[in-house]
Amino acid sequence: MTDLGSAISTVRAVRLAGPGREYLVNEEPVDIHIVNGTIADISPTGALPARGEVLDAEGAWAVPGLWDNHVHTVQWALAAERAPLGHVTSAAHAAQAMSSVEPLPDGRRVGTGFRDALWPDRPSLDALDATTGTVPTYLINADVHSVWLNSAALAREGFWSDDGMLREEDAFEISRRLNAVDPEHGDQAMMRAGEQAAARGVTGLVDFDMAWNAEAWPRRLRAGFASHRVEFAVYPFDLDRAVIAGLRTGEFLTEDEVPEAARGLVRVGPVKVITDGSLGTRTAACSHAYPGDPQNFGVLTVPADQLTYLMTRATGAGLAIAAHAIGDRAITAALDAFTASGASGSIEHAQLTRHSDLARFARLGVVASVQPQHAVDDRDLVDRHWNEQTAIRYPLASLRDAGAELRFGSDAPVADLDPWHAISAAVSRTAGERTPWHPEERLTLDQSLEASVRSSLRPGEPADIVLCATNPRTATGKELRSMRVVATLLAGRTTFVS
Questions:
Q1: What does the alpha-carbon distance between residue 148 and residue 179 come to, in Å, rounded to a whole number?
Q2: SS3 content of the chain, % helix, strand, coil (to 5)
Q3: pLDDT in tens, 14-36
Q4: pTM across the whole model
Q5: How far is CA 215 from CA 68, 188, 264, in A?
């Protein structure tokens, strides 16, 4: 029995299913030999002597370690402590559901995950006050771009809204305050969440938490966090601080007093710039108005000259850009700013993309960081609120065929942090028994795996390896969604063993 945290030197009798398998002549089991956290050799099972600790895969199927390229880590970790609202079907239902939620130790009731864009009624301050009384109560939209507060919560936070709804920057400020828990509490939540991610084969993620992560992650590493690799973002309000601190995208953080197992896990990521709103809050910047609201084309939250300035300043300091852009107007504006500034990086989401912009991703070298599960979750929202839009909705195949590099993420807690859900959604464009939604945008399994990993199963690559109970290449969309992970290795060390 292999223990958690074991340093594996040989993975015995494993079949390769992910990138790297193309170098083998057949699907017969092989042994993966690991030295100092790196794949040193791959040989037919038994052809070379096994050294050190052996993990017997017993014919399991291996893929490289999986990445989630878009996670709001603290909000994701704390979601387990908040009331889930994904099931509510109306504003009245949501308000009533919050009435029985136990307040957190700080005295606030918090619910998360509602989707009001399909409700038959609208949130109102009176309705929420009637069911929640004087206990400060907060409901966070699934897209995190709006929050619904009762009068007690508005008073506590120093905000006001006639209907209790706060949107965009005001909503982000409320989320930042709710996420600003005691560091020890937050770090323990992150430790548990990291273990859950490893159980799904995650060996890396990009952290878009709205905080100064250059202090948080070293602290977590010193406390023993070692579940996966991390690239953390910086937001524009901390850009000057990042420049003064000398942070540069891709560089490792200082690792003083960090345990051996946690060394080399955390790098500086991009500067995250939110350039428009979201579909769920009806603020994504689009070419055509939202139905029933002829003056609402969404919002461009960063003026074009300011966006170019931010990108130019970040680029000059050695920092890449991650530009949140959902609507087609925002995507065009972001690509324009990449062109003018010479910045490198990604566009996050790209949910409504003009045909004329597809090829610009490849020409500019801008990564399309997308969340395939959103297409499954949002299809009814799209059909209602973007029915008049002429751009491509939730493109995958169109972007890839145009030469864009795709990277998959979840946007957790907006969707579950589970790369198999993203892979399944990309392959099938559905979940459950519903027919595929825009099946012309489906990807193959190999293409989806390519967008979900940062390495391959080849000598010289990091020994970030996921062992699967069944062959992903022959699995259905439903089977991919529930893929059983047998073990996860991070630089040859087991972070999960079933």
A1: 16
A2: 35, 25, 40
A3: 999 999 999 898 889 999 999 99
A4: 0.96
A5: 22, 16, 16
